[in-house]
Amino acid sequence: MLDSLLNTADELHQRALAVPLERLNCRWAQRADLALWVRRDDLIDASLSGNKFYKLYYNLQQARALAAREICSAGGAWSNHLHALAAAGQQQGIATRALVRGERPASLSATLADAERWGMQLDFLSRQDYRTSARRGSKDCQDGGQADLLVDGCYWVPEGGANLLGALGMGVAGWAIEQRFPAAADICTAVGTGTGLAGLAARLSPGRRVLGFSVLKGEGTLGRDVARLYSACRPRGGGACWGLIHGFHGGGYGRSPQATLASFWKDFEQDTGLVLDPVYTLKLFWGIYQLAQRHYWPRGAQVIAIHTGGLQGRRGFDCP
Ligand SMILES: *Cc1c(COP(=O)(O)O)cnc(C)c1O
To answer: Does this model's pTM top 0.90?
Structure first.
């Protein structure tokens, strides 16, 4: 299966190739003599933005190939993943269902309201039940052979799109960088489950380095998860080196940015004209900024940041 998914003529590869790669006009990067580029994967699709588009792509193909009755997944009230999955289900005429943590609130988050409007069935579960069910779904589709992906006609995509097909999808963005940007450059991305990081690094060449900025407070099994997916989707002889960078989570997952981070957010958007989401890409650029201040990169270095999208999540926060 791996070989057939490395077919560079497929639609995903072609769309990834067309994603703009822009030189960012940014004062602090200029001061550090850093050539900062941004790959605009937030623009890859109008409704499924950023890395969720990539991570769902082969999963959707697989669900169709298995003639799944519906696609099921899990997530929280502001989940970019559920939002993208609901949009995909509506576009492609596939039923979707989501397990959502907690009781159904009197008024849904903007994210879940969209999802429901697009036809996604929302099943609200207690935290306990959520943990059991969401984990079962994830385990079935991460470890299993293809047949295991289907549980009672339902194709399971784990929370965050964290499975092998998700990593292979995001790998296509790595392939596109390899085609479009042959010069030496570190590639930086925000990390939640690490699926995207694993895929990206796997499809880049051995001379390169991919830095994943974790948005989570704890380290947990993240390193192991990335290593496992990376080896599973690395083509023979390929694969960049990758690393995780901790400490720029800004208070933890989904937290409102505190004063310093909020003012960085505002200044950055005014300075560069690039709009960030508060959960992922804000943390990424905050991390790059901090490293640049500490002269982590030599003068004249080139850095490519991936804008992994997620802008729909801005609706849950006070934004600049
Ligand atoms: C989900 C998401 C990520 C994290 O991707 P992982 O593959 O889970 O590490 C990064 N950025 C945005 C905008 C996301 O929505």
So the answer is: yes
